[in-house]
Amino acid sequence: MAREMENLEYARVCGELQGMIGAHIENIYQLDEENFRFKIGSREIACTVGVRLHETKYVPKETGRITNFVEFLRSRIRGGRVLGIAQMNNDRIVRMGIGVGELEYFLVFEMFGGGNIILLDGNNVILRALVQRKWKEREIFPKREYALPPAPVLSLSPSLSEMKDIHEKKYAIAVFSRIPLGLNYMREALRRAGVGERENYSEVGEGKVKKVLLEVERIRGENVPSLYSDENGKIVQFACAKLACPAGVKVMEAKTLCEAADEYYFGNVESVDEKGAKREGEIEKVKERIGLQEEQALHLEKEYKMNMECAKGIYDNFEAVEEEIKKARKRGERKAEVEV
Q1: CATH number for 20
Q2: 230: three-class secondary structure by DSSP
Q3: HEC readout, 97-122
Q4: Contact 238, 258 (CB under 8 A)
Q5: What is the pLDDT of residue 303?
Q6: Domain count of the chain?
Q7: In this structure, are residues 156 and 165 in contact, taking their beta carbons and an 8 Å threshold?
Q8: How far apart are CA 16 and CA 31, in angstroms?
Q9: Quick one: 36 and 158 in the same domain?
Q10: Can you give the pLDDT at residue 257?
Q11: In this predicted structure, what is the pLDDT of residue 280?
């Protein structure tokens, strides 16, 4: 199963997509419930809601599926010009500004939880959302003003005093992962600093905390898009910074993080065609099971009718049956025959 992209990776991807600014949105496609494709100029963006968002070179076959959501997006922003692409709140949120004539829109990709795609007008009011949701602190419904989720507890570059303010007796990974970097990269920062993930945070000394924060800064400064493959050549990981490799894993550099992500997800996310074939196969198996169950039901129905006839015969000749059973017992026999 493919992993979800992390905070730092969305920041990198937004940087790599700056070349799309000024290009026009040629079309929007929804391939299935969770996979979308945006053709911007001559380039393509692949989006699996809640999982990934990056430029892609793998263009799937058209499915001809046009949902109400896609129709709405096309009616508002197709042909519009990309004005900007940015990560919001250092979170797994990407906002794309789009100009259509004198109008301005914002297309927001929320890539946490189950994921969402939301279209806003120039006043930050929600026009349409792929999924309507409600939380205690905010709501995603048409005609409501869009609000970002609460900001992360810690900044990307927290001070030592900020870290001292956390007094919870939790594992180090639970506390440090509040820095909006991403779990894979925070684990790498802890490893480099020599701090165990399950160390009690309250027992991690100030010196080690400084080391972790220093490694966080180093990881943020690295730009080494890489692919990691196992002994069979299957790509099992991608990253924008150097990660420790288990034995047997090979590292290959990529030109961009989008390219690395593209290769990783292309091999780990089922294509629309594959999903369709899989569903067809599952349908055939269900049909086969239904056929067997129908045959079994007919057989059981025949047995039921036969047993009911026997029971009726016994009931109608109960006295004779009882007399023959008594005779059989006297003879020491375990069976009695009665002509019905």
Answers
A1: 2.30.310.10
A2: coil
A3: EEEECCEEEEEEEECCCCCEEEEEEC
A4: no
A5: 73
A6: 3
A7: no
A8: 24
A9: no
A10: 98
A11: 52
Residue 335 within a domain: no
Q: Which residue has the tokens 């480099």?
A: 192
- Yes or no: say if 38 and 28 are a contact pair by the CB < 8 Å rule: yes
Q: Which residues of 91-111 are buried (b: 16+ CB within 10 A; e: fewer)?
A: bbbbbbbbbeeeeebbbbbbb
Q: Which residue has the tokens 């794309």?
A: 96
Tokens linked to 285: 């198996």
pLDDT value, residue 1? 74
Joined tokens for residue 1: 């199963």
Q: Find all residues with CB under 8 Å of 298, minimum gap 6, and list them.
A: none
Based on the fold, state whether residues 139 and 168 are members of the same structural domain: no
pTM confidence score: 0.78
Q: Contact at 8 Å (CB) between 218 and 229?
A: no
3-class DSSP assignment, residue 295: helix
The pLDDT value recorded for residue 290 is 60
Q: Please list, in sequence order, all residues whose beta carbon lies within 8 angstroms of the beta carbon of residue 274, skipping any fewer than 6 positions away.
A: none
Residue 238 lies in a domain: no
- The residue length of the chain stands at 340
Confidence (pLDDT) at 336: 58
Q: DSSP string spanning 164-200?
A: HT-----BHHHHHTTSTT-HHHHHHHHHHHT--TTSB
- In angstroms, rounded to a whole number, what is the distance separating the alpha carbons of residues 96 and 106? 6
Q: Are residues 67 and 116 in the same domain?
A: yes
From 121, 150, 179, give the residue that closes a domain.
150
Structural domain of residue 306, as residue ranges? Answer: 274-330
Q: What is the pLDDT of residue 273?
A: 47
Q: Are residues 121 and 157 in the same domain?
A: no
Contacts of 227 (CB under 8 A, 6+ apart): 235, 237, 238, 251, 252, 253, 254, 260, 263, 264
Q: State residue 81's pLDDT score.
A: 98
Question: What's residue 277's pLDDT?
Answer: 47
Collect the ranges in the chain with pLDDT lower than 50. 271-273, 275-279, 283
Q: Which two tokens stand for residue 13?
A: 């991807």
